[in-house]
């Protein structure tokens, strides 16, 4: 069954500030029943990157930690 990611204005703004790129967009899919199925899709000028929440290290109680985890998964 297909999963549809929605544009995340907060995640997009966070990544734009951290990377300096005004061209990227970040989309998210959150599965409330199975967190390990949740993921981000980051679209840059020449790439589309999918990052599963299960691939990231973050504190589930902190949105800021989730954003930092996403950044680290892609750029570090």
TrEMBL record:
Name of the protein in question: Uncharacterized protein
